[in-house]
Amino acid sequence: SQKIEQNSEALNIQEGKTATLTCNYTNYSPAYLQWYRQDPGRGPVFLLLIRENEKEKRKERLKVTFDTTLKQSLFHITASQPADSATYLCALPNAGNNRKLIWGLGTSLAVNP
Amino acid sequence: DAGVTQSPTHLIKTRGQQVTLRCSPISGHKSVSWYQQVLGQGPQFIFQYYEKEERGRGNFPDRFSARQFPNYSSELNVNALLLGDSALYLCASSFASGQGTSGSLHFGNGTRLTVT
């Protein structure tokens, strides 16, 4: 079955720096991959979707890359702010059932002022 | 427009009891999915309903059941509660049946269920 690995350790960075989060997956290559943000006690909030034929996608200070050879997606937040502190989750469709999303454990990001 | 709403926000139950969680999707969304999120873990897929029909089921026991109503709202029922059922139960809506293929899932803030 599909497995997803995200940085297990929390990431602490200084305000203004670029945060880079990693999502690695095994087995088949998904048609797309999504990134969500989750704050404590809240539901995940969709950030970006990148398809298998897209190498990179940007939205304001966010950038996502998708390397189907390495089976890896990188999520970048440039000019990070304390308000970016949250847990970031990657998710992709399960093989054979695209109605089921498989999720990573998430990476906790803390941006220090 | 209102987002996905879930009720109740918090719930404490005793082992063996039954619980019903409710979800109202974003207006116009016809698909509702349920996820279980244990602290420190990613969400685990439980069910998806589209146009009142079950379209997907995760690896959960038969104690878990759900349904979708004509107005697209949904209920998740869990019978014979176990301590391990303690989690945040998330509901997500989307316009289309395929999860995320049209762009995204919209989540509510969940129901925090504690089983003692």
How would you summarize what this structure contains?
Chain A is an all-beta fold and 113 residues long. Chain A is 0% helix and 58% strand. Chain A has strands at 4-6, 11-14, 19-25, 32-38, 45-51, 56-59, 62-67, 72-77, 86-94, 97-103, 107-112.
Q: What is the beta-strand fraction of chain B?
A: over 45%
The most extensive contact between chains is: A-B, 25 and 28 residues
Indicate the low-confidence ranges of chain A by residue numbers. Answer: none
Taken from the alpha-carbon principal axes, the silhouette of chain B is globular
**What is the number of helices of chain A?**
0
- Distance, first to last CA of chain A: 41 Å
> For the CA atoms, what is the radius of gyration of chain B?
13 Å
Average pLDDT across residues of chain A?
91
The count of β-strands of chain B is: 11
Assembly state:
heterodimer
Number of strands of chain A: 11
Total number of helical segments of chain B?
Answer: 0
Structural class, judged by helices and strands of chain B? Answer: mainly beta
Radius of gyration of chain A from the CA trace?
Answer: 14 Å
Helical content of chain A (DSSP H or I, runs of 4+): under 10%
Order of helices and strands of chain B: EEEEEEEEEEE
Task: State the major sheet of chain A.
Answer: 6 strands, mixed
- Cα separation of the termini of chain B: 37 Å
Shape of chain A: globular
Poorly predicted ranges of chain B = none
What is the chain-wise order of helices and strands of chain A?
A: EEEEEEEEEEE
